[in-house]
TrEMBL record:
Entry coiled-coil feature ranges: none
Protein name in UniProt: Putative restriction endonuclease domain-containing protein
Domain of life per record: Bacteria
Classification of source organism: Bacteria, Bacillati, Cyanobacteriota, Cyanophyceae, Coleofasciculales
Native species: Coleofasciculus chthonoplastes PCC 7420
Domain Putative restriction endonuclease: 11-191
InterPro entries reported in the protein's UniProt record: Nuclease_put_TT1808 (IPR012296), Restrct_endonuc-II-like (IPR011335), Uma2 (IPR008538)
Length: 201
């Protein structure tokens, strides 16, 4: 993750200049180059495929957009680009920007959000946990396929881990899944796959 500019941007400037460039996020006005790698995109793609199959099988009116920006706070210059986000199509009528831009501002539009951990693991484990909980997103997965997170987050010895955060009240309750363990999701209770299934070959 690289900070690319010393000049702060407002949210509207970010949308005008960077909405079509999926490399960038905005955090408190700072433009951030996400620097995606091939293995990172492999894991994100496999996760999206597994979830898409399950969404179709369960018949939910939910889908995974090709691109999407999540604006966690209307009063802050922050714009997140989740690696995978599951949207409720029936809720999008309430989204004020959706007809013009793929921007989500309401937590009720999001059923599940996934972030694949890279070198900016602190953001995924700390800041985004707070942002997504405040937005009211029911489930947030932190997919740490290389075991990069600090021991305070994934334990010792550090190893590949998926942390499933489920919203209870205003806070997330977290459950960790390591290699060989079936992942449990409250949003998709019949989901049946392991972290092993989405790792790069």
């Amino acid at each position: 993750m690289v900070y690319t500019s010393s000049q702060l941007l407002i949210f509207e400037e970010f949308i005008a200049h960077y909405s079509n460039n999926t490399r960038y996020e905005l955090a408190d006005g700072e433009l951030i180059d996400m620097e995606p790698t091939g293995p990172h995109e492999t894991v994100a793609g496999k996760l999206a495929s597994k979830l898409s199959i399950e969404l179709e099988r369960q018949g939910h009116p939910w889908f995974i957009p090709r691109t999407c920006i999540v604006r966690p706070f209307t009063d802050a210059a922050t714009a997140r680009r989740p690696d995978v986000v599951v949207l409720d199509e029936t809720a999008l009528v309430n989204e004020p920007l959706w007809e013009r831009e793929p921007v989500i501002t309401l937590g009720t539009s999001i059923k599940l959000i996934l972030e694949v951990v890279s070198t900016n693991w602190e953001t995924d484990y700390a800041r985004k946990v707070e942002e997504y909980a405040l937005l009211g997103i029911p489930e947030y997965w932190i997919v740490d396929y290389r075991g990069l997170g600090g021991v305070a987050f994934i334990g010792r010895p550090k190893q590949p881990t998926i942390t499933v955060c489920q919203l209870v009240g205003e806070d997330y309750v977290q459950q960790q899944y390591r290699l060989g363990k079936l992942i449990e999701s409250r949003m998709l209770p019949r989901l049946a796959f392991k972290l092993d299934d989405v790792l790069p070959r």
